[in-house]
Amino acid sequence: MAVSELLVVDVGTSGVRSAIVTGDGAVSRVHHEAVLPSTPAPGLVEVDAARIAQAVRSTALGALGEAGAVAAVGIANQRATTLVWEREGGRPVGPGLGWQDLRTVGTCLALRAEGFRFAPNASATKLAAILDEIDPDRARAADELCFGTIDTWCAWVLSDGALHVTDPTNAQVTALSDPTGTRWDERVLEALRIPASMLPTIVDSSGAIGEASALPGSPPIAGMAGDQQAALVGQGCTRPGLAKATFGTGAMLDQCTGDAVPGALDRSPGGTFPIVAWRRGGANAYGVEAMMLSAGSCVEWLRDDMGLVADAADSAVVAARCADTGDVWFVPALLGMATPLWDFGARGALLGLTRGTGRAEIVRAVLEGVAHRGADLLEAAEADSGRAIETLRVDGGMSANEVFVQALADAIGRPVELSATLEATTLGAGYLAGMASGLWRDEQDVADAYAPARTVEPGRRDAEREAIRARWLEARSRALRTIPALSSIEF
């Protein structure tokens, strides 16, 4: 009997999850271990590669111990986190630099004079910073050291060091590749003094990659993708125009655009970035990505700093106690504003307070403010892709908040479809591995497998929605350039 189950290893910012994905698209037998990044100083975020490796092995073995044999293994990962290890033996040379790490902001600004537009969250300048610290003259880099993002590290660990690979969804966001994510950019490598031999081989996101010899039965690794692209596939957005939004601590909206190759890696006029959505059979599918820096973190602010809600679920209960915000407006820019304006000096704003404003109105204003930022992302994606988003598929922790989801549907003026699984990233990596191993035939099969848990329709007429949206956009304008020095910085 053919095996119809897959193992997926999903490494996020705060932990490692391994789970079994079955042929009917269910995610089960989840094993999770917390692996938190450290912050040795403001703006610095470091990860322990050895601890991640340990968690990858233990959670994978735990899930396999319950499931038995699997047809293939898929990998999903936080993107752009940067690791360097010794080719012989696989020992990390020091802490990895998390994708949120900002130590290379100065380098990014300096390199603009040479025509390079690096962002500090990309891997390129992080890798150069690690080498400048441990191998400044690059004596070891070419022959002794390996670079990889988290997907590369997982494949190395699961193959006992036999595989040094990445896929285009991860390669492109390193800023070390061309726009297709299939070739390393020699001009960038020369500018940063990075030997090409350090870099992994770029393979398909869905296809035969190699054996996971560290696991019982040595199942094939057959799927790899960055977390947002994996969630895009997991939400069945494998046809051009389809889009998903993941609302967690921050939020990402990704839309599939088809096979048209982007001209550059730079930010598009609407404030989105081109991405490789996946690669199968040697052919890329592309997309656009819009970003919100503060989403669920605004609810954490209500809970931890303001004491207005007991927990995340309580925010919906409190917000439901009032029918509207009483003309109170919140702009979720606690860490600056990304898509569409990219103003790092913007700051959160709470406007329209009166003596009659109460706890419920403030909590509702926060949820509605995040929803309006979601509308920002959708409008930017449509502008840059030229494709309408008829419905928005939503996952992430905030998708469980009924008040927020209704506010999102009202702000975008179209239906919101809620994911049937909270592990859309895990499911997407499973689909990629499953297409390679025959559990699903192709992207059309994956799209047909999608079924939302439920659909939330907008509850406002267009004229009312547009008036409310205009009021919120006015509030957004007042939050811009709060710290002019930061607002002047562009990446």
Summarize the structure.
With 491 residues, the chain is an alpha/beta fold. It has helices at residues 49-67, 105-111, 123-134, 141-144, 150-158, 168-172, 186-192, 227-234, 296-305, 312-319, 359-385, 402-412, 424-437, 443-449, 462-479, 484-487, and strands at 5-11, 15-22, 27-34, 46-47, 72-77, 83-86, 96-97, 145-148, 165-166, 201-202, 206-211, 220-226, 243-247, 251-258, 273-280, 283-292, 329-331, 349-351, 392-395, 416-418, 454-456.
Overview of this protein structure:
35% of the residues lie in helices and 21% in strands. By secondary structure, the chain is of the alpha/beta class. It folds into 2 domains: 224 residues, 2-Layer Sandwich (Nucleotidyltransferase, domain 5); 215 residues, ATPase, nucleotide binding domain (Nucleotidyltransferase, domain 5, 2-Layer Sandwich), CATH 3.30.420.40. The strands form 6 sheets. A 7-stranded mixed beta sheet has the order 15-16-14-13-19-20-21, with helices on both faces. It has a 6-stranded mixed beta sheet with strand order 3-2-1-5-12-11. A two-stranded antiparallel ribbon has the order 4-7. The model has no long low-confidence stretch (mean pLDDT 96).
